[in-house]
Design brief:
alpha/beta, Metallo-beta-lactamase, Chain A, 8 helices, 17% helix, 24% strand
Length: 303
Amino acid sequence: MTELRFLVLGSAAGGGLPQWNCNCSNCAAARDPSSGLAPQTQSSLAVSVGGKTWAIFNASPDIRQQIQQTPQLHPSALRQSPIKSVVITNADVDHIGGLLTIREKQAFDLISSSAIDAVLDANPVFRVLDPAFVRRHVISLDEMFSPLDGIEARIFAVPGKVALFLEEGEPELGLEGEQTIGVEFVAGGRRAYYIPGCATLPDWLCARIRGADLVFFDGTVFTDDEMIRVGTGVKTGQRMGHMPITGDSRSGSLDVMSKLDIARMVYVHINNTNPIWRDGPERGAVTAAGFEIGHDGMEINLA
């Protein structure tokens, strides 16, 4: 029997929890061992069939720590990592920064869309990934590929925007192209999705994920103006390219996804300001709607 194994390596948004320069209530709690809120690293997912080899989805700047705290990813012999591929879903720093850490002459496949590959190609710092070891693969939208033996996957466009460091003036929001992608996994008759960044849930995307066995979805902010109200920023969730959890019947992922007959729904890429990190009415509303809050070390197996 084929079993898809998912390990949440990092569940937080850019900067992690606690964020280095923030003392909001969540960050303060994450620094306090007695609070019950454990620190969380930046967004990344590991996927396997059988647990011997793994594909990593997004190379977080925290990847060294994530590997260290995940025994399944430890080297089994001298220079023998079980990580066989890395797939990038957008070019934000919190998803590509870790590539600079895994540069030590280790063979793996680096997989992305052409737009994301072009960003890596344009920045000379990523030349530290020795092409004699790191094989780069550009995948077209909706093209089937295998990040590991036994797993079939597709990438597809989701509404988003260009990476922050590529913005020039006001970027196009809700852009549907190769800049922001989701991943569909198919194995053993099961269907799962990883969508850590998404600006909206249009009808076509709802139709695609409807009835899935598992969806990891963008949970960056609870309300669109969350960072403004908390005082940690001046941008809304939408301006950052992230759909808020709550809103009206079309603008909040909680309401929209609750109607799609998805067996398991897990929020990931959760910002340090998001109140769902701790017990309270916001977390209660999310769990009452059938969602789970992702956390570092969370494991889900689909047999």
